[in-house]
Amino acid sequence: MKRNLITLAVAMFAFNVTAGSDPHWGYSGKTGPQNWYNLSEANASCEGQNQSPIDLSGFVESTLSAIDFSYQAQGHEIINNGHTVQVNFETGSQIKLDQHQFNLVQYHFHSPSENHINGKSYPLEVHMVHADADGALAVVAVMFDEGAENEGLAKAWASLPKHAGDKHSLSTPVSAFDLLPKSQDYYRFNGSLTTPPCSEGVRWLVMKQPLTASKAQISSFQSTLHEPNNRPIQPLNARVVMQ
Ligand SMILES: [Zn+2]
Asked: According to the UniProt entry, where is the signal peptide (predicted)?
C-alpha cells in the first residue's frame, strides 16, 4: 500500500504539469509548508518523523559503497510545473544501490537549497529522482555554489519554460551525468519527498562535493519561479546521517 502511494506520488510529480500549476499547495501563506499536512488527508506524512529536507551534520562513519551511476542522454523534455523546473527522462538511465536498480525518472531544482550541510545553505540544489520496480525512491542531491557557469545546466536550461504549465522538448537530449561532481562521495540518510504528499521511505544520497552555477544561471531560475521553492529544514529525530 505504501509503495503504491509512493508510485502514485512519483506519477503525480512527473505528470501534474498537464494540469498546470497545482493550486492546492505552495511555499507561502495558507497553503505553505506549515499547513501542507492540513490541506489533504493524503498529506498526513508531512507531519511524520522522517521528513526531508534536513541539516546534514553529526555524521556517523560508515562503509557506504559507491553508487553505480549509469546515465544516458535521455532527458527529453523540460517542464515548469509551478513548483519547480523539471527535466523528464526516458527509461534507460539508472543507479545501482543496495544491490538493486533505481531508474532515473526526472531531475528538478530548488533555490535556495532544501538540505543544508553543516548548517550551510546553498543557492541551488538539484534532486535526481529514481524509482525501483516497486516504486521505492532514491534521490541523488547535488549542491551548487555561486561561481563559474555550469555547462550541464546551460544545456538543460537553454529554453527555460517561463510559465507554470509550460513544457518544451529538448532538441538535444541531456544526461544527468553532467550535473554530477567529479568526486562521488556522498552522505546518506532516510527521508521523504520534500513536497506533498511528503511520502517517507526515500533513500537520500547527497553528494559531498558541490558544483558551481553562475549568478546569471541562479537568478534566471529564481526569476522563473518567482518565489523560493525550499521546504524548511525538518527535525532529524531518531535518524542518523551516514558518510
Ligand atoms: Zn526536490
From this structure: 1-19
